[in-house]
Structures are given as C-alpha cells and as structure tokens.
C-alpha cells in the first residue's frame, strides 16, 4: 500500500505536439480517418475535428444540416490541390512556408476556406514585401481579396514615397481614376512641388494617344500655383504634351497670369486654396530644458526671489529647420516630468513610448504611447504597450514600430506596433541578452548592436527577420570593441554607429557583412547625446519661430 504523499501533478509537455504528429501520420491509413477532401483530382484523407478547429468554413460545414456533414467524401471546386495540401499540413503541424510563388494563392484559398491564422500570416508577409515597385499591385490585390490591413499599409507607402513609386512600371499602368484619386489625396507627400506635374506628364507619355485627353484634368490637380514661374514658362509650358493641348496651354497661361497679378504683400498660399505638401528634414527635440533662450535668465531671477510657480512648465517640444536655420515651437509633450522614454517617427508623425514617472526615490515605468499628429499639430494617446519600459530603444521597420528592452526581465523583450490597427504584439526576443545597445532598421531587417553592461565586453550584432519572426547572430569581421551608450542610424543601405566613449564613427554594410571606420567627430564632444531626425510636412505659418 502506498503511504500518504502529496499529489503529483504530471504534465508531458510534448504531448500536444506528439498527438498532432500522430494524427498526421494516421491520415495515410483509411481506418483512422473520417473524411476525404478532393480537389483537382487529388484526395486528402483527414479528420473532421482537426479541420473544424482550424477552419470556420469546415466547422460550419460539419456542424450544420448539410450533406457534407455526414459525407465520407467532400469535393472542393476551384481549389488548387497544392495549396490545399499546404493548408492541411499547417492544420496538423502548425508549420507553413510562405514565399513569393505561393502567397497569392494561399491568401485566396485561406480566405475562402476561412483558415484565419494562415490568412493573417500571408497578410503580414505581403505587408513586409511592400516597396516602391509593387505597392500599387499589392494594394489592388488587397482590395480584391478583402485585406483592409494590406490596403492601408500599401496606400500609406504610396503616399509617403510617391516620387519613388512613379519611377516604376506599376505607376504607368494605373487607371486614370486611380491616378486622380492619388493626386487628390491631401496626404500625398513629396520633397519637390514639381512631383505632381511630372507624374501626370510621365503617365500620359506612356500611352500618349489614349491618355492625352486626360492631361488637363491631371494638371489641375498638380498644384500649379505653387510652382515657380520659371518652371511653368520655361519647362512645363514648352513640353510637347502641353503644346499639343489647347486646354493645357490655356490653364498654364491663366496660372502664370494670376501669379503675375498677385498684389505686393499677398502670399500665393493666401490666394490659392491648395497648400504645398513638400517635405523637409528637421531636427525634432522633446523634453529637457526650455526652448526659449530667455527662460534661463528668468529662471534664475525667479529662483532667487522664490516666486517661481511650480505649475508653470517650460516649453518642451519643437523642431529645428536646418535650411531656414530657425527653431519652431510645437505643442508641448503632455508628460512634463516623464523621463527614460523613446522617440521615433513613422508615417511623418512622432511617437513617444514608455518612460518613467515619480520622484527619485519612487519611480515606475509606464506603457503609455503618445503620438504627435504632424498634420493636425496635436498630441494623442494610442494603444499602450504590452510591457512597461524605461530606457528602451525604438525603431521603425516596414511601417511598424519596434520597441526593444527597457523591462526588468532577464531577456531583451521586444514588441511591435501596427498603426493601421492600433495594436501591439509581442515579437521573438533576441538570442543574446544585451543591456547596452542600439537598434535600427536597414534593408528590410532590424539590427540590434550592443553588449552587456560590463566594461570592455565585445559588441554583438543580431539581426531580426520580420517575415519569419526570427533572430540570428551575425558574425562579421572588424566589429567594433566595447562602445558605451551606442547610437545608430541607417542611411543609403548602410548603418552608422557612434558612442559616447569615442570620437570614431563606424559603418556597417549588411550586404558585404563588413565594418569599417569612416570618420571622427570634430564638432562636439560626444557626451550625453541623442539626436533625432525625421521628415516633416509643415507650413511655416503654423508655428512660432525662433532665430
């Protein structure tokens, strides 16, 4: 007789997987299956229960009063047998390979058969493949197959990268109504005001005979009043397409005449309704001391007199226009006393994630996420992060925000934010723990560069592939030694790396997998820095300027 002992809770962790694998192996034995799917002349023995758990389509079929609910054989019409085999393999194993060759058929069939997990994976794959050469095609595909998240991301990419998109064949193949909708969209961004007119001319030239009749309508959407007169008369008016259209010539002559008749002191922006949307690179500053130089003297006097009102906060947000060499005030960031947050730009807006509140003796991290909407000039909160974070790093990749580290866990926790559905999701953690690190996106992947917070501990380079949600450690020659508080930025397909314990600037080329030294800081001592640059579409009259 067994003597009295505590209960034993036994759990075989491999049991669920082994059961699935066992059921999969039994599909080849007719005695152990209860339904056979047929598609394209091929038969697929399987189990109703597995199908019902993975597909709402089959759950409804087998649980309703349909003939298929009791039939031993179910014929699926207009279904590719290879794609069906892939879906069934996923149902039994949870594994799936998505590539450029099968993603379109997979998303079609998974949508029809309601394999929602597969459809979501395909949708995410498509979103990560968006670039200037295919965003229009992916947008159209998403519209046809009811993938609003794909449509939104492809559309956003088009509006933010219009000049690059118009250099590719898909742009030339647009229907007229599609091009009109694009040119009308107030969110369309370009670095050059000529982009609208150049796009219209390029599109018409591709099929001159059939499209020339649309040119007047397209040029009316080209923001002509904001183009310099030298361009209107010296280039656009002399273009052969314009010369062949009386309506176009009349339109341009009217615009030039209006520009010449503008009274002194009346701005063109005040005369014409459309406003330019060209972008400028600016230096965005948030937090810290006041942006007003005069505040320093006033603060000293107030402190001496003991009259400073603690409820009055200094201005804490603005940007510097390097071309005009002017500071511009922005609405204050609402959390005046927060510190340790991370700032990143996405879709021409600015996001502030996490940070700590409280006194020096009692602080706590937050999950807050703030968004500064550049077009509207205001701060709003969006979905909070899943983990509280302080002193973390953030980067943008494929239209999403990735936040890395900043938690108290013994692993580097990562999550990403999708602005089109306003939600956060956990991401696979890096393979190696680091606490002194920086991150940046380059060529469609996320690179994490850092080390443990131990002096002279060598740097580790880790790479995240969003398509397969997986990290890898990259072994590359000449990787820098220990760097304190590293900061990185990606530009022109390479990564630049700096730190506060050296004046050296390092460059990493992902294609060549090679590091090299490229320059030295000669302007300032690199102590306690964190510069942040982003593209911003703004109108000067909207902000207070400071020389």
UniProtKB/TrEMBL annotation:
<feature type="domain" description="BTB">
    <location>
        <begin position="33"/>
        <end position="100"/>
    </location>
</feature>
<dbReference type="InterPro" id="IPR011333">
    <property type="entry name" value="SKP1/BTB/POZ_sf"/>
</dbReference>
<keyword id="KW-0677">Repeat</keyword>
<dbReference type="InterPro" id="IPR011705">
    <property type="entry name" value="BACK"/>
</dbReference>
<dbReference type="Pfam" id="PF00651">
    <property type="entry name" value="BTB"/>
</dbReference>
<keyword id="KW-0880">Kelch repeat</keyword>
<dbReference type="Pfam" id="PF01344">
    <property type="entry name" value="Kelch_1"/>
</dbReference>
<feature type="region of interest" description="Disordered">
    <location>
        <begin position="289"/>
        <end position="315"/>
    </location>
</feature>
<dbReference type="InterPro" id="IPR006652">
    <property type="entry name" value="Kelch_1"/>
</dbReference>
<dbReference type="InterPro" id="IPR000210">
    <property type="entry name" value="BTB/POZ_dom"/>
</dbReference>
<protein>
    <recommendedName>
        <fullName>BTB domain-containing protein</fullName>
    </recommendedName>
</protein>
<feature type="compositionally biased region" description="Acidic residues">
    <location>
        <begin position="293"/>
        <end position="307"/>
    </location>
</feature>
<dbReference type="Pfam" id="PF07707">
    <property type="entry name" value="BACK"/>
</dbReference>
<dbReference type="InterPro" id="IPR015915">
    <property type="entry name" value="Kelch-typ_b-propeller"/>
</dbReference>
<dbReference type="InterPro" id="IPR017096">
    <property type="entry name" value="BTB-kelch_protein"/>
</dbReference>
